[in-house]
Amino acid sequence: MSVSTASRVTSAARSRAKAPPRPGSVSRRVTKVVLSALAAVVTAFSIFPVYWMVQTSFQPNNEIIGSEVNFWPQNFTLRNYETVLFDTTRSQFMPALGNSVVVTVSTVVIALVFAFLASLAVTRFRFKSRKGFILTILIVQMIPAEAMIVSTYRVLDSWSLLNTIMGLTIVYVATVLPFTIWTLRGFVNGVPVELEEAAMIDGLSRSGAFWRITLPLLAPGLVATGVFGFIQAWNEFLLALVVNSRPEMMTLPVWLRTFQIANGTTNWAAIMAGSTLMAIPVIVFFLIVQGRMTSGLVSGAVKG
Amino acid sequence: MSPNTSLDVAPGDVDGDRLVAPSQRGSQRAVKKPRAQFTPYSLLVPATAVLAAVVGWPLIQLVIMSFQEFGRAQVFGAPSPFIGFDNYVEVLTDQAFWLVMFRSFAFAAVCVVSTMVMGTLIALLMNALGKVMRLVLSIGLLLAWAMPALTATIVWGWMFDTGYGVVNYVLTRWFGLDYIGHSWLIEPLSFFFVAALIVIWGAIPFVVFTVYAGLTQVPDEVLEASQLDGAGPVQRFRLIIFPYLRSIFLVVFILQIIWDLRVFTQIFALQGIGGIKEQTSTLGVYIYQNSLGTGEYGTGGAIAVITVIVITAISFYYVRQSIKEEEL
């Protein structure tokens, strides 16, 4: 499903929402109450784990391992966050955060540049292996990373790139690239080629037209696609676990699991604080691009 | 490159032969002949290089390795002779492998069916709601969707904790059941119940939003007409809504199968919280344990190749559908 289909879908949804309500009868009102109640139950089920994570993270640990369970923090505390963030003997959060930020940002930037070039090639040119390339992209996207870990590990090892920022970044670029190209392709298609042509008649070179006309017009598409890539790279667990296993090279997901294994029986409050810290950027970014999420996911696998 | 040559490669006018108007065919087309051969390829170089290096090359290595004797000794420099299909024979005759396969497919089947059914029902519910409740429901679902898989697993693991988990507490205090100190993860079936709950909880929002987007495309007039003709809700769904959404359902269905079949994070992290590995491993986790865990790269490679073939075969329809819809 292309991006344009998605915008049509959302606009259709909006126009429907605006339609005037039908005249209500008693049975209709009862139905409405029942439906709202159902919606409330589903919402509660959906939110509860997120709520539980946050509320546990604000409780003193000795209170959450008592015989009573508090559904709301009785003695609000920030000590768990202090433990996670600053207690360097117990938690290596900060170095992991640094690794995660560097790897994720490099991945997004590199993938966007490469994908922009590739999407120009497949939208603005007709050439022999064009269809073959797009087909390859779609198939590559379907190859399960789980199956590839052994050989990815060995290949990186042969290049001496294990436990390096660069090694993990390259692997992540390859992971997000197919999806990024596929999505950007839709956005580039949405930029009228006549604009480039007009700029070229006015004296710009072809690449000048790409960089100075098409690229700025693509900004929203680049942001949306970049955020997808960010979420994917930030959450990635398996490859990080295999490729960057040394403690000082860990990313946040690997750190979180290590921290959970070490404290799983003793300090759930701190684990929940760590979980919250890891989830916040994703939730924020997710809410920003949620409108495009559906189309993005139908056309490519973000959350694997 | 001159502006002249670049104009002729613009899509829309040379998009196959379909979009070219008959009148333009003669003279203009002759001018447009010299096609750009160099530039598109150079634009593809960076992406192709990365994919070839990090996906293509390891994939070739994987296939080669799966035909070699490749264990710990080979990692430390011993020669790795080709042994034909021995690794495959070993894997395919190993009962543990079939057990893992069965487990993965059974787990995926349960998750996919539950996710699809519940997701569709919630989408229908969303479609019938007023504006306010629809927004509330959307936010709730978005929050669940946005949770990273690993974080979600750890949080659910905490909720199902043996000693201090909220689930045991509620079952004991509110429903009078004896769940004090009950371990949810030690029994394989109960382990998979929790795992399925995490996977389904995380996957439902995607199905809901996709199906809901499709539902808004179904024309109201058709639904109203059928209602006047006496069609009940079930008939309306089966005879009108479903045919309209058929392609959406199929794509979502296939994506769910693929995602649930290759589920790794949830199972792996849950095992770390307290499951018995031998009894709860699915394909992804099994590959991890069989290669990186034991160092049997040869057999691990064979399992991986089989997995790639299975998953790629299942995604065939998805790939075909994507290409058809985009009209390359």
Summarize this entry quickly.
The complex is a heterodimer of chains A (304) and B (328). Chain A is mostly helical and 304 residues long. Chain A has 14 helices and no strands.
Q: Roughly what fraction of the amino acids of chain A lie in strands?
A: under 5%
Shape of chain B: globular
| Most extensive contact | A-B, 111 and 119 residues
Sheet with most strands of chain A: none
**Number of helical elements of chain A:** 14
- Sum up the overall morphology of chain A in one term: globular
Rg over alpha carbons of chain A: 24 Å
Share of residues in strands of chain B: under 5%
Key traits:
heterodimer; A: 304 residues; 76% helix; disordered N terminus; B: mainly alpha; globular
Describe this structure in words.
The complex is a heterodimer of chains A (304) and B (328). By secondary structure, chain A is an all-alpha fold. Chain A is built from 14 helices and no strands. Chain B has 328 residues and is an all-alpha fold. The N terminus of chain B is likely disordered. Chains A and B meet through helix 1, helix 2, helix 5, helix 6 and helix 7 of A and helix 1, helix 3, helix 6, helix 7 and helix 8 of B.
Task: Give a topology summary.
The complex is a heterodimer of chains A (304) and B (328).
Chain A: H1 3-18, H2 26-57, H3 61-64, H4 79-86, H5 93-124, H6 130-142, H7 145-158, H8 165-190, H9 193-201, H10 206-217, H11 219-235, H12 238-243, H13 252-263, H14 268-298
Chain B: H1 3-7, H2 26-31, H3 39-66, H4 72-75, H5 86-92, H6 95-128, H7 131-146, H8 149-159, H9 166-173, H10 188-215, H11 220-228, H12 233-261, H13 265-274, H14 277-280, H15 283-293, H16 297-314, H17 316-326
Helix pairs in contact in B: 3-16, 5-16, 6-10, 6-12, 7-10, 8-10, 8-13, 10-12, 11-12, 15-16
